Amino acid sequence: MIIILILVIMLLIAFVLIAYKKSSEIYIDIICAVLIILSITGLVLCIPTIAIEQCNTEKKVHSKQIEYESLIKQCQIISSEYEDVSKANVIQNVYKWNKEVYDAKYWADNPWTNWFLNQRVVDSLKYIDLEDYGL
What residues have CB less than 8 Å from 60, skipping those under 6 apart? Predict the structure, then answer.
C-alpha cells in the first residue's frame, strides 16, 4: 500500500512542479522527468501485479487447501503403522509449507507489501504442527 502511495505522490509532485514552474529552469525539468518516469514505471508494474493477485481467489484457496490436506495425510500415514513415505521427505515438505505460510502472513501484514497479496488466500493458510502427529 505504501509503495503505491509513494508512487502516486511522486507523480503529483511532478505535475505540481510543472504547473508552478516560473521559467525554463532545466533542473526542474529534469527532476519532473525523472519523477514521472519512475512513478509511471512503478505504477505500470505494481497495479497489474496487484490485480492479478486479487483474481482467482477461490482457485488459490482451493489449491492451497488441497496441498494442506495432502501434507496432513502424509503426516498421518507416517505416524501410523503403514509407513509408505519417508519421514524425512514429509518433514521437509511440512517445513516448506510452514515457511510459505509464514512468509505469506508476514508480507500480508507488512504495510509496504500487503496489497500484493490476497488477504483471503493468506487467511485460509494454516500451519502444520508435526508434534500433533508424533514427529
Answer: 118, 121
Residue count (the chain): 135
Q: What DSSP character marks residue 85?
A: S
CA 56/CA 65 separation, integer angstroms = 14
By the 10 Å C-beta count (0-12 exposed, 13-18 middle, 19+ buried), 131 is classed as: exposed
- How much of the chain exceeds pLDDT 90, in percent? 24
Q: How many CA atoms lie within 13 A of 73 on its CB side?
A: 7
Rg (CA), the chain: 24
At 107-118, the pLDDT tens digits run: 888 888 888 888
Check whether 97 has a pLDDT greater than 70: yes
Please state, in angstroms and as integers, the Cα–Cα distance from residue 81 to each residue in 72, 77, 84, 85, 90, following that order.
Answer: 16, 8, 9, 11, 15
Has residue 1 got a pLDDT over 70?
yes
At residue 24, the 3 state secondary structure works out as: coil
pLDDT of residue 92: 87
Domain map of the chain by residue range? 1-55, 57-135
Q: Give the pTM.
A: 0.66
